[in-house]
Amino acid sequence: MNNVILDATVFTSITACPRLTDYEFNRSLVRIDGKTNALECGSLVHIILEWFNKSLISGSSRSDAIINGFIAGKEYINGWNETNKYLKEDDEYMLNTPEKSGKIEKQELIGWQYVLDTMDQYFDFWKNDSWTVLAVEEVRSMVVYEDDDMRVMWKAKFDAICDTNQGFISMDHKTMRQRRNPLSLNNQFIGQCIILKSRNVVINKIGFQSSLKPEEKFIRSTISYSADRLAEWANDIVPFYARMYLAYNTADSWPANYSHCENKYGMCNFREVCESDRGMREEVLKVNFKTRKKWNL
């Protein structure tokens, strides 16, 4: 019996590019120069909301929980310090985001102060929120597929699990610079629904558009799935790619797939590696990447 453990990040990587999977998850490589500005701004929002909600769960008042959220956010901005209350030494910290928004080398960057101001608006907009947060940044897992040869366990990390007075539901925080509708064709959302035994997931949109009013950039959208779509994903799609993952591991061969080199966040981190000759790739990796702690939800 082959046991396969997957989460949305690893699974999406497998379907996109085996070589990317090898570099990111087998070898645990990350860029020395850190995340992009967009990803860092998203991380800042997640950290603020994580410690805001954890404070609420522990019994803090809403005003105190907001203060705690911003303290954690400032720790992420300022980097590791022994006086940190929330973030640890081996956590990731902000490297590529300036204080003020502006254009640097033809690239329009969001400043961390703008993100903090946006979160001030967010908390004011949702000041009468009636949903109760039950869990934050919680990892849950379950076996989603099993046959005579293979068992697949799916792991999911939930930004928040909420009681909406109409049942429990997953809430996933998404930051964005442009207005766009969330896509239901998403392994992360489907996996969360299956683990929670729910048909719905809520996308908590947080927009960074300065031209929009709060009601236009702070939106909670619900994505709904039919039982058949969830069953197809668990019984057909996941096992197919799980077998491919096993095959790559067995052969220790991780071929490149050049159809996913550019995505909504920009270019793949390993583009320059793949553009190098085979004999030079290890040197490019050595110069531009470092080993992080092993990927584990």
How are the SSEs ordered, and which strands pair?
Blueprint: E1 2-7, H1 8-16, H2 18-26, E2 29-31, H3 37-57, H4 62-78, E3 102-104, E4 107-109, H5 112-125, E5 132-146, E6 150-163, E7 168-176, H6 187-196, E8 200-207, H7 214-217, E9 218-224, H8 227-251, E10 262-263, E11 266-267, H9 271-274, H10 281-288, E12 289-291
Parallel strand pairs: 1-6, 7-8
Antiparallel strand pairs: 2-12, 3-4, 5-6, 6-7, 8-9, 10-11
Helix pairs in contact: 1-2, 3-4, 3-5
Descriptive report:
Helices cover 41% and strands 25% of the residues. It has 10 helices and 12 strands. The protein has helices at residues 8-16, 18-26, 37-57, 62-78, 112-125, 187-196, 214-217, 227-251, 271-274, 281-288; strands spanning 2-7, 29-31, 102-104, 107-109, 132-146, 150-163, 168-176, 200-207, 218-224, 262-263, 266-267, 289-291. α1 runs antiparallel to α2, α3 (37-57) packs antiparallel against α4 and α3 runs parallel beside α5 (112-125). The chain is globular. The model has no long low-confidence stretch (mean pLDDT 94).
Quick structural gist:
This protein has 10 helices and 12 strands. It has 297 residues and is α+β, with helices and mostly antiparallel strands.
- What spatial form do the alpha-carbon principal axes imply? globular
Radius of gyration: 20 Å
Largest sheet: 6 strands, mixed
Distance between the termini: 23 Å
Kindly state the number of beta strands. Answer: 12
Q: Unreliable runs, pLDDT <50, ≥5 residues? A: none
SSE string, helix = H, strand = E? EHHEHHEEHEEEHEHEHEEHHE
Please report which band the strand proportion falls in: under 5%, 5-15%, 15-25%, 25-35%, 35-45% or over 45%.
Answer: 25-35%
- As a percent range, the share of helical residues equals 40-55%
| Total of helices | 10
The chain-level structural class is alpha+beta
Give the overall pLDDT as a whole number. Answer: 94
